[in-house]
Amino acid sequence: MAKTDTKSDTARGSRTPRRTTPSAASRGSRRAGNAKTETPYHHGALREALLQAAERVLERDGLAGLTLRAVAREAGVSHAAPTHHFGDLTGLLSELAAVGFRQFNAAMASACDTATTPLARALARPKAYVAYAQAHPGMYGIMFRTERLDYSRPSLHEAAEASFAGLANAVGMMRQEQISGDALTLNQGAAIARAWSMVHGFTTLLLDGRLEDILGRLPEGTTAERLLEAMLTVPVTTKLPA
Amino acid sequence: MAKTDTKSDTARGSRTPRRTTPSAASRGSRRAGNAKTETPYHHGALREALLQAAERVLERDGLAGLTLRAVAREAGVSHAAPTHHFGDLTGLLSELAAVGFRQFNAAMASACDTATTPLARALARPKAYVAYAQAHPGMYGIMFRTERLDYSRPSLHEAAEASFAGLANAVGMMRQEQISGDALTLNQGAAIARAWSMVHGFTTLLLDGRLEDILGRLPEGTTAERLLEAMLTVPVTTKLPA
DNA sequence: TATCTGATCTTTACGATGTAAAGATAGGGA
DNA sequence: TCCCTATCTTTACATCGTAAAGATCAGATA
């Protein structure tokens, strides 16, 4: 009696094979020679396995399904195992967001490299930004859903900082100025804030489905990417009325 | 024994007076003449009371503290009472978001009215937008945290739609065009998307503390409002490099 | 006027979640 | 060989959302 947890959290030996990456291999233990990989007590690389499991859960069940216990289930360990590696839910989400930022930065960097013409180079970054968010909406959601993130964690702080630096740098190149690290003029700050706000705002609204209304009223078959392009290239016409 | 809920949810008669708005007054019931307002079984205007309680909880404890049970506690009713009026948590959040959108729309409308010069009129709306979000970060968070909202609810759909219409209209006036309801050119769509993305993105980044970095590097004492203004007025200088 | 009905609110119950604390299990140095 | 410590599991508890059944009351009906 007194079974508090009804749903089998651990599922020891009843689920997916677990330990998809034995990797390190230095762990045959005394049970070497035993063909049935019987889920050893010590995982060996649980931390990474949990992060990968978390990413899988996020893509499969969305943000709402991303719980500590769900991740533990997906990795095939007990529900309290993640706590030891990440402290709490905030810890896990923060580390996962760091992973996301690194993927994100890599995607933008590679997009910039493949661009040839100046115009393409200017548009490559924003397009890659939105493309990443569309391809990984869950990840993007975590990265910019600050309320449950701990930016004092070095890995997250660092990865997010790199993302910002890349953006500021790109804006600087666009203006053919050197952006000095520590001081900004109002115009420089405004340019950076504009670029970031525009792309981030567009992405957020797009993922939240708030642009459907606009997209539906545009000429037949206009994609979000096309709208973004127009938004960034078409000159602003502000004839202030008398 | 078998007390599942330990924390006193109801707190009948041990908490704040409850029924801060007897309003309707047509409810003395047979117990009329009883001086001690002993929390009648039927509240009379629970729905509105719950929404106000929710707003209070949101401002006091933030988004994380806004739970069905917390709202019920704040209103001094049983934890299951809100369900009857809103169905589930999504229902309550959606109705609360609708309240927020109405406040939001009213704030923007009044800001536009008080502006005199054309430039001021052009900036009034974005400024009011950001100002509302800064004054009511919790509300803004709910309004644009789509994952837990049900836009099929008429009140929410309507209030949010009005917000969008106001924006589109403002952009149209800026371009001295009539925005026809059902069709948009690419340039018109781009202009609307740009305005909305810029203001929404700026607000989101500001509330998430992601602009602190920029603001700290700007000339001493530059406020977020000033940065917004610069972002919206300073011409875009994009000298594409060869 | 007495009764009935439906809306409103409370009680009780259940599964799920985050988190803390204590126990089990090895890997690696003494 | 033995023990220490990091790693993982068990157990426990408070809280949350939600469903279902019971209590209460206002107003319609007879």
What features would you describe in this structure?
- Two copies of one chain form a homodimer.
- Chain A has 242 residues and is an all-alpha fold.
- The first copy, chain A, has two domains: 45-87, Arc Repressor Mutant, subunit A (Orthogonal Bundle); 89-233, Orthogonal Bundle (Tetracycline Repressor, domain 2), CATH 1.10.357.10.
- Helix content of chain A is 60%, strand content 0%.
- Chain A is built from ten helices and no strands.
- Chain A has helices spanning 46-65, 68-75, 81-86, 89-114, 118-135, 137-143, 154-174, 186-207, 212-217, 224-233.
- In chain A, α1 (46-65) crosses α2 (68-75), α4 packs across α6 and α7 crosses α8 (186-207).
- The first copy, chain A, is globular and about 65 Å long.
- Chain A starts with 45 loop residues before the first helix and ends in a 9-residue tail after the last helix.
- Residues 1-6 and 11-37 of chain A have low confidence and may be disordered.
- Chains A and B meet through α1, α5, α7, α8 and α9 of A and α1, α5, α7, α8 and α9 of B.
- The structure holds a DNA duplex (30 and 30 nucleotides).
- Chains A, B: Residues 67-86 bind DNA.
- Chains A, B: InterPro entries: Homeodomain-like_sf, HTH-type_TetR-like_transc_reg, HTH_TetR, MT1864/Rv1816-like_C, Tet_transcr_reg_TetR-rel_C_sf.
- Chains A, B: It comes from Bradyrhizobium nitroreducens.
- Chains A, B: Residues 44-104 form the HTH tetR-type domain.
- Chains A, B: GO terms for molecular function: DNA-binding transcription factor activity; transcription cis-regulatory region binding.
